[in-house]
Write a structure and sequence with these properties.
Elements lengths: L4 H22 L2 H22 L7 E4 L1 H5 L8 E7 L5 H16 L4 E7 H10 L1 H8 L2 E5 L1 H13 L3 H18 L18 H14 L5 H6 L5 H25 L8 H10 L10 H31 L8 E2 L4 E4 L2 E4 L4 H4 L3 H11 L5 E2 L1 H10 L5 H5 L1 H12 L4 H10 L2 H5 L1 H5 L14 H15 L9 H9 L5 H9 L9 H15 L4 H13 L2 H8 L5 H11 L2 H16 L8 H20 L5 H17 L9 H4 L4 H6 L2 H11 L9 E6 L6 E8 L4 H12 L1 E7 L7 E10 L10 H13 L14 H5 L5 E6 L6 E8 L4 H11 L2 E7 L2 E2 L2 E10 L5 H15 L3
Parallel strand pairs: 2-3, 7-8
Antiparallel strand pairs: 1-2, 1-4, 5-6, 6-7, 9-10, 10-12, 11-12, 11-15, 13-14, 14-17, 15-17, 16-17
Helix pairs in contact: 1-2, 5-6, 5-7, 8-9, 8-13, 9-13, 11-12, 11-13, 12-13, 13-16, 15-18, 19-22, 22-24, 22-29, 24-25, 24-26, 25-26, 26-29, 27-30, 28-30, 29-30, 31-34, 35-36, 35-38, 38-39
Length: about 850
Amino acid sequence: MACDVAALRAEVKANQLQLQQNYELNHDAGALLRERCAHVDVVLEKLWQSFDFPASLTLAAVGGYGRGALFPASDIDLLILLPQEASKATQEKLERLVGHFWDIGLEIGHSVRTVQECLDEAARDITVQTALLEARLLTGNAKLFATFQKRLHGNLDPLVFFEAKRLEQQERYLRYNETPYSLEPNCKESPGGLRDLQVIFWMTKAAGLGSSWQELHENGIITQEGARLTETCEEYLTHLRIRLHFMLGRREDRLLFDYQNNLAERFGFANNEAKRASEQLMQVYYRHAKTVTVLNTLIVQNIGAALTPETDLIPQPLDDNFQIIGNLLDIRDEKLFERNPAAILDSFLAMQECHELSGMTTRTLRALWRSRDLITPEFRANPENRAAFLKLLQSERGIVHEFRRMNQLDILGNYLPNFGRIVGQMQHDLFHVYTVDQHILQVLRNIRRFTMSEFAHEYPMCSRIISELERPWLLYVAALFHDIAKGRGGDHSELGTADARDFCVDHGLSEEDTELVVWLVKNHLVMSQVAQKEDLTDPDVIARFVRLVGDMRHLQALYLLTHADIRGTSPKVWNHWKGKLLADLYYQAQHHITQGKAPEAHGVIADRQAEAMRLLRFFALSDTVHERLWKQLDTVYFLRHSAEEIAWHTRSLHYRIFNNQPVVRARPYQEGLGLQVMVYTQDQPDLFARIVGFFARAGYSIVDAKIHTTAHGYALDSFVVLDVENRENEREMIPYVEHELEQRLLHQSPPDIPSSGRLSRQVKHFPIKPDVSIHADEKGTHFILSLVAADRPGLLYTVANTLAEHGANLQTAKITTLGERAEDVFLISGGDLRDSHNRIRLETELMDRLKIA
């Protein structure tokens, strides 16, 4: 029988179109998966029959196709089973068959093996063994297929298979950073995805414990409620993956930013004032994924217990409610939480207090999961439960572990309902990489680490400060509430204060402690804003900050919370430069508070000059070496530079104050990673733009710039730059930076235009509308330019070039990058900025140039 490839291709295409139409009409995900399998079965059987293969051969479906679940764009996995090695004629036929697979429009993954070859490959590769476990006869020799199945199952050790799949899952989790809360999760492979449910069936099928949720329930592996929840989650994830495949017309399981908005619309979400449609979609996804990870944990533990019953472990009583089995906490009565809901919190307290415990038994976790709805308003109002919750925060150990466990089991969100609202809520603000609840728990973890001696080397300043703070556990309360009002619309800091105050009053905190927690929640963003955006050499800035802080307790608490908060947003956001800015602000505020006033400017300058002279003596320089340079420098220079920087500049320039050639000196930045670069040259047009362009081309990001013009018309500029290309040895770049930048300035070469580079997809799909403002400082002598924009290559060059075109002179620059978001502040003068029309023109032009096309 001849094969009509064109007819089969048309049939495949018509089937796919019909499936999509049926799905859009009926929204029956299960029917779609089954019907696609049935359609492919028919087509493949026709194709097989057309080749007139020997009757001894078998065609079988394996993997997802064998399971009877084919998604719209999934590969079709086939096994061609041979009784023995194929003859040359059969091999040629098989090659033509494989070619026709593609000709008719099916993406086929195939293997051609004998039974023994299948067994050998399965023994070597757990993935192959798993795919073969789901084999289903399509056509051909049924007896050979039965022999294959019998020998495959005969060689299968359920316990070995279980352990292999468990380890495989752990490795898969590691590939996806062990979190279901990725910005762009894979709805199949990420923790909480469909694979977490499939692996359960692989384990239970191998162990003969069932291949449906109902069968697992009947065999005691899952409760009736668990079966209902898994079916609900599986259905949601199945719909999500189906829609993604249909939307793109190809196989894609990642929920990329590029797809999230369109996918959200297909699920009926629309943008509102508080959240984008994509954020609403992802919050629903994260909540389902979180449920799947809990169910996977419970069920896998139950499968393991069924395969390895530990009859020899004798329970050790812990108290009237709990016992220890092995090193796991176990409830002594299945109905404990129904009978005594207060024991819900007691179980987490027991985990904190009993050092030998490493986890909870399956029945304890299952009972906690079932009991989450017992946390009612009456439960929350009970004084004993409130005392127990505070005790969880005040414990000496296990705080982070137990709060994470409480969040995973929905206990935390039920006890703090407003916390429950932000579970799985994504923050598409270009610098948070965690959902709000995960960010809060990261901040909690960071504060906890400040108290632990094993982390003192990593956070020496924080460790010292928190050791001096009374009742540091209050910081955990502030951490729980600092972002709890995200997504409600309005200022989350203001809205969160009401939640924090209610909690403190309800839980009997003193007025003094309540005031501190509420103040921290309200002002948790202030310290980072002042440190990163304002001039810390200005006594008025410090005085304003101190008036807000008031005393050392508030300063210490705010510093610790701010440090933990910034570190808890994203690994990319924190760096040593931000740490130095926070520390500088802390120490200056501390001096102001403890001394009763800020140091006078002339006193600060005298102290710095004296310290700079002391440092110069180490280089055997005379006591008059500084005089010629310092005569050209004003008060602002000495306020903005440290004694060490003043000494470095003086040592480098004292013998070439009237140099005709530029002087560029670089050194490793002493406060952390990166380079510190000094530029000294006769002032020239577009100087800042030239320097910015050079650094961008050389692969450096400017994080701080101090621009100064001497009395005799020279530019003395200082930069701190970070290597964005992560080159291993920064010292090796110093000669290049010094020589190349000197040459560009000497020849007054046109500014290097930075490479445009690529915008991150996050910036493309969650753009930030640029915001630019220019206003006079309090003295009216300079102007402060503030901008917020999506970060991208060449951004700082664009700003520098625009300022130069308008004749504006730059005095200082504070460059703040928060993930993909730039928040920069510049002190500028000149350029007719006193004229409001000129300021508006500059603002408008900057806004236009900062827009992303």
